[in-house]
């Protein structure tokens, strides 16, 4: 089994929309079926990578469907592709090689995602991917601690599912946090023992804990504090435990501090504004410590990341 | 009977396969682009700016999207001359297309040092002089807005280029672009590249701060195209055609029609920039579209197209 999940081939391909379901107020789940080129490219796609989707040609939803907060932004034109992580990659064996289905969770945030609301079964999209490098999954891994903040959750859901399928010996736990319960891109339900859990992780057999800043669901406070309490109680072995975090940058910085506190390695999935996603524009710089003390350099989130070892990252706070 | 279209272009003493190149700063060192298309089909590639010493570039955010365009303030991030020569030149040698290296610096000596070294490389067909970067404080645009400085730097860098052609890239941020073009041509520029991005700003109305960490950036994309067309047309009429110096035109090209428009305005060849970010193989579609246009119009050479504005 590979230690580092490196970038393989990438390319431009099309995908058919299978479904585009609203799952909460502003959250949608998009299921895509990739064409044969995309399916081949995704044969080796591991959790933590991403795609760039061309959304510029999509129409706006009808005015009454546009959330009031976005009525103004709706009239902005879009030009560049938008990057999306995926929450699941499903291989369906077929006669002419596998067919890949991609699940993308997205939040209606601006003029591009607003246009995605109009996607319906049968529509075609143009994608570039799979891009970037995924999460490291060392052979020594026995315990995976996933920390998700808000819309940082999808790649960790993919990681959870991937570990269950390919590394069943790894014990995985997920902490998911958001400002408020309606900002969680998941379905909440009452678990057997632990109180509130996330249905999407529960069906994978992965225990989950919920934290909200306002206390509207689960632990009241930051998701990293919720995880800290668990780490204190469980004291996982540093040699075989990895923390995986994805979410807003201040949360990632806190996850990095938390991992250091417990002497655990931590993989953070970063986000940056990017024009191309393939290393051409150099816009998605992440400041990384070099081997020389006190020295830093910029790495590209799209090509060198989006996953980085948290010990090397200088967070933008 | 359908006539064959000869897409080749005589450009500053070089023979380009066709008039479509990828613009500096939008195709990396061309190796990333090679994963998405057959780069050897391009008329040429222009690498991102190379400086004598490596440059980290600006803090983020480095880009922001606008309606019909984007602003960038990368800050000439690059691996520096030494690493470029050892790591990237071997890759460029294998591309099978004409390679121009964009050269930048803070002082004239920096430019001269980089140009002198790169002109010796067989893989480098020519150099593009960046005196128009809006995103670095010294060098960059400050050279490009003053005809006296343009003359001075062009003369010194041209002397360092040996027999390799020197393209001078002009900034549109001047009151009289023909004066800038004239200064470059008089000082020995073999070609003019125009235009670089337009200095611009986007403000976040929630925080009331500029979105870009650099505060300002260079606007590119479809929004700038009609201005760039006008500037190419003006410089072609007033400077380039009389002097017999070719123009490399660009600014917001997305389609073959855009490319043809630049050529009619006076460009001998065109550069594709921002559109490559959206669709990496845009340039190849444009080459085919230019061919179709010429066939439809009964044009057999690119010379018949360049400067054919009525």
* Helical/strand content category of chain B: alpha/beta
Terminal residue distance of chain B: 27 Å
Q: Helical content of chain A, roughly?
A: 10-25%
Radius of gyration over C-alpha positions of chain B, nearest whole angstrom: 18 Å
Rg of chain A: 19 Å
> Which blocks of ≥5 consecutive residues of chain A have pLDDT under 50?
1-7
Report the CATH topology name of chain B.
Answer: TIM Barrel
Q: Which word captures the global form of chain A?
A: globular
Low confidence ranges of chain B = none
Q: Estimate the strand proportion of chain A.
A: 25-35%
Strands ordered across the widest β-sheet of chain A: 4-3-7-1-2-6-5
Largest beta-sheet details of chain B: 8 strands, parallel, barrel
Q: Within the largest sheet of chain B, what's the order of strands? A: 3-4-7-8-9-10-15-16
Mean pLDDT of chain B: 94
The structural class of chain A is alpha/beta
Oligomer: heterodimer
The name of the CATH superfamily of chain B reads Aldolase class I
CATH class type of the largest domain in chain A = Alpha Beta
Distance between the termini of chain A: 36 Å
**What is the mean predicted local confidence, pLDDT of chain A?**
91
Short characterization:
By secondary structure, chain A is of the alpha/beta class. Chain A has helices at residues 36-41, 111-116, 153-166, 199-202, 223-234, 249-261; strands at 11-24, 27-34, 50-54, 82-85, 88-92, 99-107, 124-131, 143-149, 171-178, 188-190, 196-198, 208-212, 219-220, 241-246, 266-269, 285-289, 296-300, 307-309, 313-314.
Question: How would you sum up this structure, described in words?
Answer:
The complex is a heterodimer of chains A (317) and B (310). With 317 residues, chain A is of the alpha/beta class. Chain A folds into 2 domains: 11-131, Elongation Factor Tu (Ef-tu), domain 3, CATH 2.40.30.10; 143-271, Rossmann fold (3-Layer(aba) Sandwich), CATH 3.40.50. Chain A contains 6 helices and 19 strands. Chain A has helices spanning 36-41, 111-116, 153-166, 199-202, 223-234, 249-261; strands at 11-24, 27-34, 50-54, 82-85, 88-92, 99-107, 124-131, 143-149, 171-178, 188-190, 196-198, 208-212, 219-220, 241-246, 266-269, 285-289, 296-300, 307-309, 313-314. In chain A, strands 4-3-7-1-2-6-5 form a 7-stranded antiparallel sheet. Chain A has a 7-stranded mixed sheet with strand order 13-12-9-8-14-15-18, with helices on both faces. In chain A, strand 8 (143-149), helix 3 and strand 9 form a beta-alpha-beta unit. The longest helix of chain A is centred in the middle third of the chain and has 14 residues, at 153-166. Residues 1-7 of chain A have low confidence and may be disordered. With 310 residues, chain B is α/β, with parallel strands linked by helices. Helix content of chain B is 34%, strand content 18%. Chain B has helices spanning 80-93, 108-119, 141-144, 147-160, 177-186, 225-243, 256-265, 274-278, 282-297; strands spanning 9-11, 14-16, 20-22, 44-46, 63-66, 69-72, 99-103, 126-130, 166-169, 191-194, 198-200, 203-204, 209-210, 217-220, 247-250, 269-272. In chain B, strand 9 (166-169), helix 5 and strand 10 form a beta-alpha-beta unit. In chain B, helix 2 packs parallel to helix 4 and helix 7 (256-265) packs across helix 9 (282-297). The longest helix of chain B has 19 residues, at 225-243. The two termini of chain B are 27 Å apart. The mean pLDDT of chain B is 94. The interface between A and B is medium-sized, with 34 and 35 residues.
